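ligand=flavin-adenine dinucleotide
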Amino acid sequence: MNFQPDAGLQAFRAEVRAFLLEYLPASLRGQTLGVRSSCDAMARWQRILNDHGWGAPSWTSEHGGTGWDAAQLQVFDEECAALGAPKQDVFAHRLLGPVMNAFASSEQRAEHMPAILRGERFWCQGFSEPGAGSDLASLRTQAVRDGDYYVVNGQKTWTSYAHEADWIFLLVRTDPAAKKQAGISFLLVDMKTPGITVRPIITIDGCHHLNETYFDNVRVPVGNRIGAEGDGWKATKFLLNNEHAATADLPSLLRYMQVLKRLATSQFVGSVALAQRPEFALRLAQMEGELRALEVMVHRVAELEREQSPVTHVMGSLLKIRGTDLQQRMTGLLVESLGDYGAVAYLPAHDHAVGMEPLPWQQMAQGIATEMFFRRASTIYGGTSEVQRGIVAKLMFQL
Ligand SMILES: Cc1cc2nc3c(=O)[nH]c(=O)nc-3n(C[C@H](O)[C@H](O)[C@H](O)COP(=O)(O)OP(=O)(O)OC[C@H]3O[C@@H](n4cnc5c(N)ncnc54)[C@H](O)[C@@H]3O)c2cc1C
């Protein structure tokens, strides 16, 4: 493998950087750490990107995307992370978009993809249920055909951002008699449909990201089904493969390293800056080494994807295992770097109930603690590390 970025990619990086410096408004830069920007910020940034033809960096050009390859997409993500730009809606862009591209009808694409590009439609993912997480194919939410509609009944859980989403992509069982995977269909559902109830789950970071989502006689047009009835597992497997690689979240790791280095020179123990303390400097250097190795791995996966190599799937799971482990250790070191402030920083980042604007160090500390607590879940969401190791072992046998 060639470790030197080619000249074309370097020129592309310069183009992206110049674009961001010109079009990313100061008010949207340096988004606080803590997983997701507000919907307003995301929609605003989405509109700016779209107005300049960069609305969907991960989509093919025939559906309004930039048509960039995986290496270009990585460069775009890295440059956005360096300036702390709001992230795009990962469910719409990285998970649903490619599924629409591969499996949806032209009418479905025309209805949903432009709305995503314009930042008008946020999505959530209705896969997991109580009793169906790692073993997703045992899901029980039922959809029964009634003329041109399905009537959906059941419960989803851990539904990230269901309380903010306009639509949900939903796995339902349409044939209870068929073999587990064979009886599943993939539906697109408007969250405003009567019969949907969303209840919050507050996580250890004190924030509201997650929900329980209930479906009580929810009528969904048959035309909202992606692919054939009972054939939803194909699109699901395709989506999950993309999700594994995306969850490694290299852009966030790069951002953590940026903040860690800033803290290393601005935080002192007595009169000695953290960066001057050998133990801290060693840990930081080791993490940077691991981060660079992950970066190379991400670029290698991009190459393998281009070559349509059969090991790409294994690499997606390996990326998820390595990336999420590093997310947890780096956010741990971030909190440690704050010293005593790290301990008092455990306040909900979005809770303004006390009616006081936080001081600058409080703002930063809150974001960091929130991020650290949230990342405890990164080895669970998108498929647990144990399950990813199982996938790697199984696929290695098949190669
Ligand atoms: C923060 C967060 C956000 C999430 N967002 C969403 C979302 O938006 N939409 C959605 O649908 N879901 C979401 N999830 C759910 C997530 O996909 C599941 O939590 C995950 O797949 C694990 O399923 P489970 O929680 O049912 O655990 P279980 O499957 O019950 O697993 C319990 C334990 O058993 C282990 N285990 C299970 N099977 C195996 C095996 N075969 N080999 C080895 N070990 C095994 C697991 O590793 C785990 O330690 C989210 C979860 C979290 C924590």
